[in-house]
Amino acid sequence: MNSYRYPIGTLVADYLRAAAGVFLPLALMIFTELLPLFFYIMCALVLLFAFYGLRTIRRQSTVIIVDGDGIRQEGPLGGVFDRSVRWSEVADFHLRYYSTRRDGKEGWMQLVLRGAGKGSAIRMDSHLPGFDDIVAKVYAAAQQRGLSMEPATAANLAHLGLGEDGGEVDGGTTSDGAANGSATNNSTATDAKFPP
Amino acid sequence: MFTYFTHRVLVMIPTLLVISVITFIIIQLPPGDYLSNQMAEMIASGDRAALEKLAFLRQEFGLDKPMLEQYAVWLGIWPGGNGFSGILQGDLGWSFEYNLPVDEVVGDRLFLSLVLNFTTMLFVYAVSFPIGVYTAVRQYSVGDHVMTFVGYIGLATPNFLLALILLFLAKKHFGVSIGGLMDEQFIDQDMSWGKFVSICEHMVVPVIVIGTSGTAGMIRRLRANLLDELQKQYVTTARAKGLKNRTLLLKYPLRMALNPFVADIGNLLPQMISGSAIVAVVMSLPTSGPMLVSALQSQDQYLAGSFLLFLAALTVVGMFVSDLALAALDPRIRLGSEASK
Fold this sequence. Notes:
The complex is a heterodimer of chains A (196) and B (341).
Chain A: E1 2-5, H1 8-31, H2 36-60, E2 63-66, E3 70-74, H3 76-79, E4 83-86, E5 92-98, E6 108-114, E7 121-125, H4 131-145, H5 151-159, H6 180-184, H7 187-193
Helix pairs in contact in A: 1-2
Chain B: H1 2-28, H2 34-45, H3 48-60, H4 67-75, E1 94-95, E2 100-101, H5 102-106, H6 109-137, H7 142-156, H8 159-174, H9 193-230, H10 233-240, H11 245-251, H12 253-283, H13 288-297, H14 301-329
Helix pairs in contact in B: 1-14, 2-3, 6-7, 6-9, 6-12, 7-9, 8-9, 8-12, 9-12, 12-13, 12-14, 13-14
């Protein structure tokens, strides 16, 4: 059984973002008399980044536990955010990549995993140590269940060295060619191919 | 997606700030300002009273202050003579050329610019999408050749030339003047149903003129992307498995081909805005373009700055929408040159 937590270094950056997003608009709202339009925009920004801050707190106290049976997310507030998906019940997964830079670098991946019940989605991103291993395990489980993937997920898996020969994956393919062994053996390739 | 949205908002705000700083610096780069130019003329005519008045105005509007302070006061993040009174407070500054507050000079030009460019964008997408799909699916058909020919004409014809041709044809054959964005009786009037209808009627030609090149370019891009997708193996496989053409097209190749189409929202907006400035001069449109040109020529810094900031904000918001749509549509990893497609 392996458990993973978000490192505090990553979260500090998010806390700083949240603080900047809350306090700068708030300062403008308090110290200057804004035009109503800008006032509402600032209010929206404060709410947005306050929610972002709360979400970061939740991430800080979230533990992802992976074992032979499945994957579990244990969150704060007495289990409100707890989720679990058995490997044998993986119903759907998406691997998405986001970057705010024009050249697409320095982005992050997000894994969304759903079990039999559509509401129980487990989400994590590539800032989580061991993310690559988790993706490989999810991919292996999806392979075993013969799940189809959306083109973006297939392409992102290929960049991680998973999927069909690690090359470009055409849209609409169901990557059912790779063996489970190759999925779990690719953690080093994953590290090498993941963008900075 | 929420994290991406938040990060993207955080990127957008400094971008806007940097653009506004650069805008302000560029406006001030030529030596002197509007008042010092006026002063030179008055010194030549020996008008001593006016000189004192101009010195007073320089102090009043803070033109004797450092550039950074002028900028901060103009933006409304630093107190000036009247406390915090800048763009964030709804005070766009003073137009020296018109001797009026900028918001009174601008009137509804900014709104009309927004409406015109937004409508043009809708026109570009509404026209280019079906034609782009048709020409790709029916490659080398008569319809494809005709559309391709029209597309090349649209790409090769400068907007202002098309505007002049349409002005000429409308006057010669229909005896009507299609200049302006509304009938004369509605100018400087509050918005009413009659004014709205008049704006809609007058907007048809400018929208076609401004949108033609964008539409043509978009058709070419969508056609090329869709053709590229249609030739991939998964399409052949899906056809071999008996998937209906329409279902196949809508489900996979079209979605893939839409990426550059969506990504172009951000590029299209600045192109249209800069293109529409020249068209606005030719067609006498009461949009921001002609007044911006005049303000830049006369160094009417607050008027020019307000326009440029508005246009920059529009562009940055366009890029923001485009990036969000792209991230939602196809969140796959793209690095280097691949990412900028």
